Amino acid sequence: MAFDSATDQIDTTTAGLPSVSFGAEALLTVHEVAEFLRVPASWVYERTRRHGRDRLPHVKIGKYLRFRLSDLETYLETLRRG
Fold first, then answer.
1. Residue 50: phi, psi to the nearest 5?
2. Which residues span the domain enclosing 62?
3. Would you state the pLDDT for residue 3?
């Protein structure tokens, strides 16, 4: 498959993430995190209720959960180091 230009290629680092950014780092929703991690939204909710290193880092804004991409990357690296 040939590409006409470099802009036709998919950037896998941001695939599935919102295209709108409001500053240095936008907050992601539960569904965006689920899509990013390729897990069900129920898994994301369940991991926010855990304690210790298995707890998915999040910010609660009223009743809404939001996630920073940098926190998710740190979380994944921590799990990887085991």
1. -75, 170
2. 24-81
3. 45
Q: Is residue 42 part of a domain?
A: yes
60: number of Cβ within 10 Å: 9
pLDDT of residue 50: 95
27 membership: H or E segment, kind and range: strand 27-28
Domains in the chain: how many in total? 1
Q: What is the DSSP letter of 61?
A: E
Q: Write out the DSSP string of 57-82.
A: P-EEETTEEEEEHHHHHHHHHHHHH-
For the packed helices 30-37 and 69-81, what is the interaxial angle rounded to 10 degrees? 40
pLDDT digits (tens, 9 = 90+) for 54-68: 899 999 999 999 999
User: Is 17 a member of any domain?
Assistant: no
